[in-house]
Amino acid sequence: MPDKDAESKQDYQIADPGEFVRNMARVMDRTAEIAADFASRIDSDDARARHDDQSEQFAHIARTFFDIAQGYAAAPNKLMDAQLRLWQQYGDLWQTSWKRLLGEETGPVVQPAKGDRRFKDPEWEENQVFDFLKQAYLIAAQWAQDIVEETETVDERTRQRARFYVDQLTNALSPSNFALTNPEVLRTTLSSNAQNLVEGMEHLKEDLEAGRGSLRIKQTDFDAFEVGRNIAVTPGKVIYQNELMQLIQYAPTTEKVFKRPLLIVPPWINKYYILDLNPKKSLVSWLVDQGFTVFVISWVNPDERLAMKGFSDYMREGVLEAVSAVGKATGEDDLNIVGYCIGGTLTAATLAYMADKGDDRVKSATFLTTQVDFEKAGDLMNFVDEDQLKTLERSMARKGYLEGGRMATAFNLLRSNDLIWSYVVNNYLLGREPMAFDLLYWNADPTRMPAATHSFYLRECYLNNRMSKGEMVLDGVRIDLKKVKVPAYNLATREDHIAPLSSAFRVGKCLGGKTRLVVAASGHIAGVVNPPDAKKYMHWTNDKDADTLEDWLAGATEHPGSWWPDWKRWITPRAGRKVPARHPGDGGLNPIEDAPGSYVKVRAD
Q: Where is this region: Disordered (predicted)?
């Protein structure tokens, strides 16, 4: 039988000591170059502004932890109990580790959560040293979260922020993120004579240059994709445009189409082509193939010239002008509408505005992972309080917009192990290029946001929750969601980090008409972009009303696969009879350019 210990020792031997030393010298030289380059950027206005913003953010984090510490200062016995539990677990770990060293079969004291991919390498379990490091880390990470949970003197918002900050800290300190304590990285370093670290430093340098002094981690092969070439390729034309948006009408693929057209309002926080990634994943293409005349808003990537464009402008020049343009393009007096994420939030507000004005052109509304009541808005609330908003508003005032990377970073932090630290390990420690993945290309193609719009959105929705309270005012109209009587389809997802299920559930409670709730598996993107042919995930329905999400889930029926066919069954009776297919340019608006248009191609770099 092979000697496992001998094989393990072989794995951790330097292949060529001389080459190893030369490569480590190259790593040190490149580290010095990067440090010098970083130091040279410190005196720039942008760097000083970023430093000031970061200093205020660190001060905010410190205040949060100070609040937690004060709670334990007032109850020292609770802290002593927590410390005793920690040392008890460490004692258990030492005991099981010694037993294992002596040849006894022992089980782990603690195990990673299901789906935690940081410790997937077999050595995290098979090698006693790495197993000990892993378990010691997991014990400490759970203890830190318990400290937050057991504090009795802080309000829930402070506790929520502390949870988030502890998560970020413990995620960063995972032994998987360091070369000497990650078995895969250590093996690769020794077997390649540290060539992986040489490559990793090159990647780090490139990412710092791409971020102009800030770290912009490369998540995919950017050269593998191009908007209009192999992403966002469903045929169509831009048939209307203004300062804020282009309106795309897609070419039909069926001889007849439903009479009532369909308008999609995507979020402006990122680009619309998440709904048209490629023909196999494209919701837009699938809708066209089902016989819908599909229109999609493609929002502008704004610069300082649009700094004062506000939420009302996005309603008026975005949704309302698109509704009118659809009517001119098709000759129809009414339409159905779909809003995704913040596009759904804007859609709901617009429908309330239209209801107040007696405008009934929209006959049904579909909301995809949308929030209108932000009381349970999840971890994004950790970025929103008065102090942080003032800091953000000062930052936006310097340029007139929020830089696209700022919002992308916030979203990445919601899943930092998957979207940050896994790439730190892959790109910088293992020295590998990230794989080509269209979804991550889209994720790394963010948009800027006008200062006025973003400030209004964060204050009115996240900070003060005025939309759900009927206190938001747009163009002189108080937005009352109860006036929205059109039938609604509300799609929420179970693992959504951006629009949590508990928050999206409330859409139907805020609107004044009948709402069909459907819950899909997975998260904010994969739960929505889930074509039937993929046969992935599942979804749940419940035809009975329920006052609480828990009651709704308890009575829900699980169905395999995508929610798309369920939505088609719901929308078909509301889509009208079949009529001859309409082509872009057939109606009252002439095509301007081919889809996907020019607005979506403007990058926020």
A: 578-597
